[in-house]
Design brief:
By secondary structure, the chain is mainly alpha-helical. The chain has helices at about 5-35, 35-75, 85-100, 105-110, 120-150.
């Protein structure tokens, strides 16, 4: 039963595409075409939607990976409860929660001149989490496709 892995590979590849499109196309285009304040509001909306999508895709990927591991055990092919792929999906979810939901409220305070950190410091931390999430999802997509290309083991 390789269907959960196929779906995971497809979701991870699409997720990676969304992350790259937001970072490399949507964000620079908004800042190139609009005044900075307007571009900031547009990008904030885009990132809010991306964060929601990342949470959904991360949880869906984790569930698919668990289903794949369960199927492997049932077929007598081994399988681990916690795989590298599951770790990557959960790392991407963590980066979303920390980088968007954790840091964004502080960024609003920093814009008003309140808080312990500057807007630039918080923006850099948020961007670092976004970068780590993108790398995690890229590796998840790559490893998921690699798992699909392996012939099924016949142990058991």
């Amino acid at each position: 039963m390789r269907e959960p892995m196929r779906w995971c590979a497809l979701l991870a590849a699409a997720w990676f595409g969304v992350l790259v499109a937001v970072a490399a196309i949507a964000t620079p285009a908004a800042f190139a075409a609009l005044p900075v304040a307007d571009a900031g509001r547009v990008v904030a909306r885009i990132l809010a939607r991306e964060a929601q999508a990342s949470l959904f895709l991360g949880v869906a990927s984790a569930l698919l990976l668990r289903a794949h591991a369960r199927a492997q055990v049932l077929m007598g092919r081994g399988g681990r409860a916690f795989s590298m792929e599951l770790g990557l999906a959960l790392a991407a979810v963590f980066c979303t929660v920390a980088g968007y939901y954790g840091i964004q409220p502080w960024m609003a305070e920093a814009r008003r001149g309140a808080g312990s950190f500057t807007f630039a410091q918080l923006h850099a931390a948020s961007a670092a989490f976004y970068g780590l999430k993108t790398v995690s999802v890229a590796i998840l997509a790559w490893r998921s496709v690699a798992l699909l290309s392996r012939p099924p083991s016949s142990s058991g």
